[in-house]
Amino acid sequence: MLRILFMLLVIAYSLHSYAQPVSTVGEGDSVTVELQDTLVRSAHTISKVRKTIRGFDRLQNDYIEPQHYELTVMGQVTRNFESFRLSSNGQSVMLAPDQNLKIGPYFGWRWFFLGYSFDLNNIGISKGGLLKEIDLNIYSSQLGVDLYYKNMGHNYKLRDVNLGDDVDCSRLEGISFDGVKVSLIGATAYYIFNHGRFSYPAAFSQSTCQKVSCGSWMAGAGYTKNVLDVDFNKLKEVVESNLTATHDVRLDSGMMFDRINYNDFSLSCGYAYNWVFARNWLFCASGQMALAYKTSYGKTADEKDGFDIHKVNPDAIGRFALVYNNTRWYAGMNVIFRTNNYHTSRFNAYNVFGSMYAYLGYNFWLKKKYRKKE
Questions:
Q1: Predicted TM-score (pTM) above 0.85
Q2: Are the C-beta atoms of 198 and 286 separated by less than 8 Å?
């Protein structure tokens, strides 16, 4: 111990002696002092940033079990459900794809989760038939961010067509319609208020384990851009070729457009509850009401300049999850759905979309502080 103390004194004296000649140089001394101040300020800033980042994952261990592992791999099966209903002057047409299964691998590191999925029924189709989806999720106990891109493909069909009370449209039900393309890109961020006791990631990213039932209020913001391309000439031909022989009908011009672009800016508030009904088991129900500022623009067949919509409407977001997680293995099912409404004097558009996920995952690369315990 005395030897270590003596060495420290020698080092301190040496540093003092080394610095002494520099202090005799006026300009050099000011540069040295300025450099030292800069380093001190930088170290202080880095320390604050580190504390802030660590604070995002601060939680109460009596309620939440932290993640024991650095990395995770997961296989996921996804079923999307979506529909677009267009209506104008008493006529309506719903377009919806077949609910095909998708599968894909996912990889996670701490807060980050990245994956890719593809449609099993459309493998090998080269001309836009491949249904693609890319998701990037960043989760912590306080904050969460979802970034997503979806390309819906060409597998839409006519559903629930109504062209008048006296028109039998049953012949149109289920007819394939390749004149529609849909793409979706968006981002959502949310804040969990009771993040010390309630874990949203335990339900939707499997990065923690909820030990005691608990709930929390949450608030968020999001942006979604949805593009719907419809070849109205093809739609007109399909409708009239199948019904003209039995009925003299014409598709209303209000539903005949080339493209509609939807932009949705939203602020949301809601409540979520994690119910721990058995050891390692969790059921979560979450509901949010969103006040959305919506803009959309497009052009119908009888309009030269097209239409432009700017409205504020309420939307709803629902999330449900059933999870088993013993920190090493996890499995479960999630359901998420959203609704959007757009109205003009010429037509109405009602959009419902959501997803159901079933997954099985494995955590590995144990964190240092848990290595001795296991």
A1: no
A2: no
